[in-house]
Amino acid sequence: SPDGKWLALSKQNTSADSDVYLADLTKPATQKPVLITPNNADIAYGVYEFTPDSKSLIYATDEFGEFTQAWTHDLATGKKAELLKADWDVMFVTYSPSGRYRVDAINADASTKLTILDQTAAKPVALTGVPAGDVGSVRFNRDETKIAFTVASDTSPADVFVADLATGAATRLTKNLNPAIDEQTLVQTEVVRYKSFDGLDIPAILFKPKGASAENPVPAVVDVHGGPGGQNRKGYTAMYQHLTNHGYAVLRVNNRGSSGYGKTFFHMDDKKHGEVDLDDVVYGKTYLQSLDWVQKDKIAIMGGSYGGYMVAAALAFRPEEFTAGIDIFGVTNWTRTLQEIPPWWGAQKQALYDEMGDPATDAERHTRISPLFHAANIKKPLLVIQGKNDPRVLQVESDELVAAVKKNNVPVEYVIFPDEGHGFLRKENRITASNAYVTFLDQYLKGVTPPAGAYASPAAPAPAAPATPAAPAQ
Hints:
This protein is 19% helix and 30% strand. The chain has helices at 238-245, 263-266, 276-289, 306-317, 334-339, 347-356, 363-369, 395-406, 427-445, and strands spanning 6-12, 18-24, 34-35, 45-50, 56-61, 69-74, 80-84, 89-95, 101-108, 111-118, 123-124, 134-140, 146-153, 156-164, 170-172, 190-195, 201-207, 218-224, 249-253, 294-304, 325-328, 382-387, 412-417. It is globular and about 70 Å long.
């Protein structure tokens, strides 16, 4: 808390249940934190912020509906009260240093809706001169007359703005889009929904290339997010704009099990992974085929991490559905992956077991849904991307899948990044990977012969030279 007297802690118990504890830092260090969210149900609690006057804790709870709400806990009396709720999850609540302004954000259908509330005037601050996009990273100056914030749109990375709180007028300070890129060539995305196999509405983010039409249909890609409980959101994504700029429609699916659409939707795939969520992805392809500007027989699938698993699962368990697949460091053997989770994951490990199943008791199902054990079914071209230092999805997961698919005499390309882990930290590697995606899709969806070395793995970085010892003092 701002006065230094209180510490809030959260504890995850399962994928659906978590608790909040408070520690009074004015008491002896031997004290135990006090549970302030006792319950006998599956309720997810979390911590947002202390109020600036150190009188209350703002905490998160999904106890009272499908979505996460913000509630207050009075530190003196323990009384709880609702602060903020919406038909979407409350993402965060914070305050200006004096407490005059409250800043909160709602995850509204894959976009961040931010409100700056002047609590003295009891009305929100209306900002002008701000482009459509996600507003975040709000910071107040010392006398709370101005705010700085970022705005990320579909066609531009996050830029910094400053606004006068008296007038709401905003001024743009940065332009982070590479000056070599004409923003007019980038596309605005659209939130769409389609029916899955059981009639469930599946939300998704759709990228439509400029010039695509019934007279000029384009090939397409279904993209699956990681997690498994992640969410594909609106906003700037260079990788997908790159694909779209090269003439590919992209449908970024939020299959059941995704976050952001209520706790029931989030848990619909528990211990059904590689089954009902895969059906949602396949029905995403069906949705694309319903669009007259998409080539119905030229649709690939791609994804990273859990999304990479879904790519391998689609090619192994639905071998005729997609034209090709791009697996970006995806799990292929759930038995091994779950068994090798390190002990230091603690409660996170138990939460993942709660969602995916415990390998000690669910080994049969894990074998059934692991693409590696069904790789003989794969008959469509595959590109696999892997970081050599990945601690979450070990390189052996990709090595074994590539070897198994090669035995089928199926085209498979394999790019290993020797200086990356689970994801790309280096710009040059992101560019190399993005170019490989386009080359692969061009080859198998457009029939373009790739140049020699198009799928070559980058060379390992040279070891750093030993430091030269300092000369002795004279």
